[in-house]
Amino acid sequence: MAHEGSEETIGKRLARYRKLAGFSAHELAERAGLTRSVIANIENNRRTDITVSEVIALSQALDVPPLVLMLPVDRPFSHHVVGKWAYSVGKLTQMFRGASSSMSTGASARATAVLRTAVSLYGADARVDTIRQKIVDTARAWGFGDRLPEIASALDSGESFGWRVGLDLREAVARRDETRAVEIDEMFRDHDAAVANYLSLALALQELTGEKQPDPRSTKGLLPSIEDAQPERTHADGEHQAAP
């Protein structure tokens, strides 16, 4: 991949970001699972046939987007020649993100749809995980650690709002702070909406690719300590100990 007006290479970009990260070549090699000689050869431009796997490993080790190694993204109007085509860096960046396609062929339309749906699905999955963890943390904080299995069942149903355990949690919180009690309702509603959004995107991606996607309605892995959860201490009147 050549570009106009500069001799910058992926090797130079790698060296620059490595130094910005504060790593020696040896440290980067260890973090990326590559050899020291591979790093040296890339940075010194003795090796230009860098594989996709290597770019991903290096970007992960440096904690930078792969594109910043592949392209001079700080100069979006510079041009690269790829085969018989010449593209600006900005255009190439959009192409990698699926944000620039003429949809002129069946392949381009499908590929763009798959990429956009897959990215949205990944984001939807992360949102489900975030909300679930927030619910679990809140339940523990308000003395409901012994009822995590019930919460897991509620979340697994995909329709957790209205379950007895959620209502009990809300009531316990309301005795201390009605405003925060409303937040309990919102958490369960947000969870159910996030699951519904995930399932819609998963179905859309399955229709595009024929690949069945994982069902998010499983707390396996999220609540690893449920089986070992000890009953929370209670007041003399039997009420759960509320969070301070």
From TrEMBL:
GO terms for cellular component: cytosol. Coiled coil: none annotated. Residues 14-69 form the HTH cro/C1-type domain. GO terms for molecular function: DNA binding; DNA-binding transcription factor activity. The lineage of its organism: Bacteria, Bacillati, Actinomycetota, Actinomycetes, Micrococcales. PROSITE patterns: HTH_CROC1. InterPro entries: Cro/C1-type_HTH, Lambda_DNA-bd_dom_sf, TransReg_Diox_bact_type. The keyword NADP does not apply. Keywords: DNA-binding. Residues 230-244 have a biased composition (Basic and acidic residues). This is Helix-turn-helix transcriptional regulator. Residues 210-244 are annotated as: Disordered.
